[in-house]
Amino acid sequence: MGHREDLLAAAKRCLRERGYARVTARDLVAESGTNLASIGYHFGSKDELLSAALIEMVGDWADALEAGLLAEGAESADSTGSAPDGAEGGGGAKGAGEGRRAADTAAADPFARFEGVWEQVIVSYFTSLNDWRDGVEALAQARHSPAVRERMAEGYEEGRTALAPWFHAPGAPPLDPDESRALGGFYLALLTGVMVQQGIDPDRAPTARDLTLALRRIVADFGSAAPPLGTAADPAEGGGAAPDR
Q1: Is the distance from CB of 19 to CB of 134 less than 8 angstroms?
Q2: Containing domain of residue 194, as a range?
């Protein structure tokens, strides 16, 4: 690896061991075996290096979570297939039938799928707890550093484009780019809010069941009042009267 890769790897280790606010430039140099000039040459500053490492760490978390969600989806699809020859008369028929019914329920009920995804998200959060706490610390630093703020803003934009497929129902009509970005932004706002609450007060923070209950209530409150997508009353189409000024 070159100095840039060495510094990123060292920054990840230091973040996990010390936390964002307690990592010094000398820590990074000692951990990476490089020098102070390398930090400035490759990243501009210590804080830019730490924010770059943090974005990679969150990306690694997201990749691992996405792989788990895809694997679970594949298992659900397999369990909904026809039973092997002779299975109906075998001892495993009851278990296979229950597995198929559970998978059918998750596939047919978008609320069940929503809750299942959020269960995985929250469980995975606790395996990367320090990474998320460092992310909150980095937000405070971004207020004072345009370079850090720009780097984190790019990471958030990547998150908006990546999150929508996690929750979009399989088999549903594909999202257009504007819908995908809007939906991803909605889930990113929900994700960051839940993670902050979990980090501060995990005993009372929203659970996957709480989020699903809230979503059911929101959908019920809107009911038939929501216009079909693409109609004149849809805000995305520019319809509706302008608000009073």
Answers
A1: yes
A2: 3-222
- Residue 232 lies inside a defined structural domain of this protein: no
- Angle ∠(144,146,149) on CA atoms, nearest 5: 90
150 DSSP 8-state letter? H
Give CA–CA dist 8/28, Å, rounded.
Answer: 9
The amino acid that residue 92 corresponds to is: G
Query: Mean pLDDT for each 10-residue chunk of the chain (245 residues)?
Result: 93 90 94 96 93 85 79 57 41 44 58 92 79 74 82 87 84 89 94 88 95 95 68 51 47
Q: What is the DSSP string of 104-122?
A: HHHHH-HHHHHHHHHHHHH
**Which letter does DSSP use for residue 223 in this model?**
G
Amino acid 140: pLDDT: 77
pTM listed for this prediction: 0.70
Residue pair 109/179 in contact by the 8 Å Cβ criterion: no
Question: How many domains does the chain contain in total?
Answer: 1
Residue 72 belongs to domain with CATH number = 1.10.357.10
Q: CA distances (Å), 100 to each of 17, 73, 87, 90, in order?
A: 44, 13, 13, 16
With vertex at residue 125, the alpha carbon angle to CA 98 and CA 109, rounded to the nearest 5 degrees, is 35
- Asked if residue 63 belongs to a domain, the reply is yes
- 133/222 Cα distance (integer angstroms): 35
